[in-house]
Every structure is written in structure tokens, then in C-alpha cells.
Design goal:
The chain has 5 helices and 5 strands. By secondary structure, it is of the alpha/beta class. The chain has one domain: Response regulator (Rossmann fold, 3-Layer(aba) Sandwich). A 5-stranded parallel beta sheet has the order 2-1-3-4-5, with helices on both faces. Helix 3 links the parallel strand 3 and strand 4. The longest helix has 13 residues.
Length: 148
């Protein structure tokens, strides 16, 4: 009688750091990017809400009042430029930091993003640790202040 194979060793689950009480709205139509950025943000303690297009982004920003928004510019339906313009005109969302997360990497694009109301600008491809560093730069740690 053959001996049963040994079970595979259990991998230790990597637990996220303590919850920070901060919510990030990630607006990204590319599923792979969404998975990568949301996973790393959750791992370091942020709550993440996800949207795939500009219409979802505006609706979720208004309903969840996130502490920060990572906004892709080239998204279906309503693009990130228009979604940001709408959010900047809304008294409930106008003060939420919005970071452009985009493949539009020319100097003119960066300048336009700031003029259109983006708080900061990250050009893709961008390392997940760079995204985390930028989010931390604007949010730090501690309790949520959205909607106040």
C-alpha cells in the first residue's frame, strides 16, 4: 500500500497592519491594476472602495466620502477629468485630495491635472510602493476626517 503524500506546509497568512480608519476610493478600469493597488493599500491598513468608471467614481465619492481618491484619467463613460471637475464643484467632495493615476505622462498632462483640480499626479507605470507613499503623504495615519 502506498503512503499518502505529505500535506503541503501551511503558508503563514500575512495580516495587514492595524486599520487606519482611512478610506481610499480607487478609480481604475484595468482590473489587474485595481487588484494590485487595492491589495497593497489594504495591506498597509487603508479601507478601499473601487470604481471602474467616472460615473461610479462620482457616485461612490458622494456616498462614501473617502479620505482620498486615486483617479485614473482614461476611464470609460465619464473620464477622470470630468469626474474630478464634478467632484471639485460639489461642497461635500471639493476638499477630498484627488491623485491622478494615469498613463498621461507628458509635462503638459501634469500641469493640466493640477489646473483641473487634482491634488497630485502619478504617471503609470507606477510601483505600488510609490502609490502607498503618495497616499501616506496626503493622509498620514489616524482617524478619518472626510466630510468634516
Amino acid at each position: 500500500m502506498a503512503k499518502a503524500p505529505s500535506p503541503l506546509p501551511l503558508r503563514r497568512r500575512v495580516e495587514p497592519t492595524a486599520r487606519l480608519g482611512k478610506t481610499v476610493l480607487l478609480v481604475e478600469d484595468n482590473e489587474d491594476n485595481r487588484i494590485i493597488y487595492s491589495t497593497v493599500l489594504r495591506h498597509v491598513g487603508y479601507d478601499v472602495v473601487e470604481a471602474e468608471d467616472g460615473h461610479q467614481a462620482v457616485a461612490l465619492a458622494r456616498s462614501t466620502l473617502p479620505d482620498l481618491i486615486l483617479m485614473d484619467i482614461s476611464i470609460p463613460g465619464m473620464d477622470g477629468w470630468e469626474a474630478t471637475r464634478i467632484l471639485r464643484r460639489d461642497p461635500q467632495t471639493m476638499s477630498i485630495p484627488i491623485i491622478a493615476l494615469t498613463a498621461h505622462a507628458l509635462a503638459d498632462d501634469r500641469e493640466r491635472a493640477i489646473q483641473m483640480g487634482f491634488t497630485a499626479y502619478l504617471a503609470k507605470p507606477v510601483e505600488p510602493r510609490t502609490v502607498v507613499a503618495e497616499v501616506r503623504r496626503w493622509l498620514g495615519t489616524g482617524e478619518s476626517t472626510a466630510g468634516q
